Amino acid sequence: QLQFVESGGGWVQPGESLRLSCVASGFTSEDYMIGWFREVPGREREGVSCISTTGGTTNYQGEVKGRFTISRDNAKNTAYLQMTNLKPEDTGVYYCAARSIMAGCTFSYLHTMMFWGKGTQVTVSS
Predict the structure, then answer these.
(1) Distances (CA, A) of 73 to 12, 27, 70, 122
(2) Rounded CA separation 41/31 (Å)
(3) I want to staple 48 with a disulfide (CB 3.0 to 4.6 A). Which of 33, 36, 90, 111 is the partner?
(4) Residue pair 98/35 in contact by the 8 Å Cβ criterion
(5) First-residue to last-residue Cα distance in the chain
(6) Which helix (H) or strand (E) is 19 found in, with range?
């Protein structure tokens, strides 16, 4: 099955950090831009960050800008989301997905994303 496998979630206290990983299973992710998305309680699935095929372009949702860092290692078929200074409102299920794109990256147009994984739960609570 062609999908990402996410890991690294857990329970942390506000202000702490987590590093999420997503590994491509059954396909080579270097041909696609990759996005991280989340489902926060009470809200629809939303884009958090994205990274271009080479890693040269990244974008972030306003709520996470300055706190989250996306990266990728194409040799390992893996993307990462380093999350720092976590807040309770970051609680949710985090997913990876990918799509073909001419250049850059976007975390809009969720319906065009492919290879959705099952997600990893992040809980931020004191």
Answers:
(1) 26, 14, 11, 22
(2) 32
(3) 36
(4) yes
(5) 38
(6) strand 18-25
Residues 46 and 37 sit within 8 Å (Cβ to Cβ):
yes
pLDDT of residue 103: 85
What is the pLDDT averaged over residues 5-26? 97
Each residue of 74-120: pLDDT tens digit?
999 999 999 999 999 999 999 999 999 888 999 888 899 999 999 99
Tokens of 64: 């996470």
CA gap 17, 43 in Å, rounded: 23
CA distance 37 to 20: 12
